[in-house]
Amino acid sequence: MNAVDYTGVVETVAIRVDADIVEARRRLRTLTQSLSYSSAELAMVATAISELARNILTYAQTGEIVLSVIDDHRRVGVRVVARDEGPGIVDVDLALKDGYSSSQGLGLGLPGSRRLVDEFEIESEVGVGTTVRLTKWASGGAASWAAR
Ligand SMILES: Nc1ncnc2c1ncn2[C@@H]1O[C@H](COP(=O)(O)OP(=O)(O)O)[C@@H](O)[C@H]1O
Ligand SMILES: [Mg+2]
Questions:
Q1: Does 94 sit in the ligand 1 pocket, CB within 6 Å?
Q2: In the structure, what pLDDT confidence band is assigned to residue 141 with cuts at 50, 70 and 90?
Q3: Domain 10-143 belongs in CATH node 3.30.565.10
Q4: Domains of the chain: which residue ranges?
Q5: Is there an atom of ligand 1 within 6 Å of 112 CB?
């Protein structure tokens, strides 16, 4: 197999300006080269990364996205951690509702991202910051893992 195996690799992308969102998506594509993601699955994670990075820029100004390739011996996938030390979210349940926005946005970034991935959690504290963690497994599953 000539694809580079990125399992275990962790990449951190600082999010400060719009171009950093493009960079985070580029790193995602590189990291997932050796995974059995379909192009649809890759697009789902890329979309979630864009939404979380956009939220960092809009609400916290700066933060970071950490990407890692994970492997639980049955499946391979990507874990994304988006974190900032911004204002935090007062009501996380409300922020996860379709259409809720404190900024005249569409209010679909968080709930939409949640639907696109397999695992999704938010930890947020007012005045401290926000951390969103998500996981997306490659549907190729065990078969594709064994074939690597
Ligand atoms: N990183 C963040 N820091 C602070 N507040 C956030 C952050 N991400 C999301 N929020 C809050 O959650 C709400 C919902 O986010 P989202 O679903 O992406 O919708 P939108 O960005 O269109 O408002 C935002 O309006 C904002 O109030
Ligand atoms: Mg948003």
A1: no
A2: low
A3: yes
A4: 10-143
A5: no
User: pTM to 2 decimals?
Assistant: 0.93
DSSP labels for the chain? --S---TT-EEEEEESSHHHHHHHHHHHHHHGGGS---HHHHHHHHHHHHHHHHHIIIIIS-EEEEEEEEE-SS-EEEEEEEEE-SS--S-HHHHTSTT--SSSS-S-HHHHHHHHSSEEEEEEETTTEEEEEEEEE-TTHHHHHHT-
Per residue in 92-140, pLDDT (tens digit) is 999 999 999 999 999 999 999 999 999 999 999 999 999 999 999 998 7
Q: Is 10 in the pocket of ligand 1 (CB under 6 A)?
A: no
CA of 4 to the centre of ligand 1 (A): 36
**Binding site membership of 89 for ligand 1 (Cβ less than 6 Å):** yes
The sign of the torsion formed by the CA atoms of 99, 63, 32, 139 equals negative
- 87 CA to centre of ligand 2 in angstroms: 14
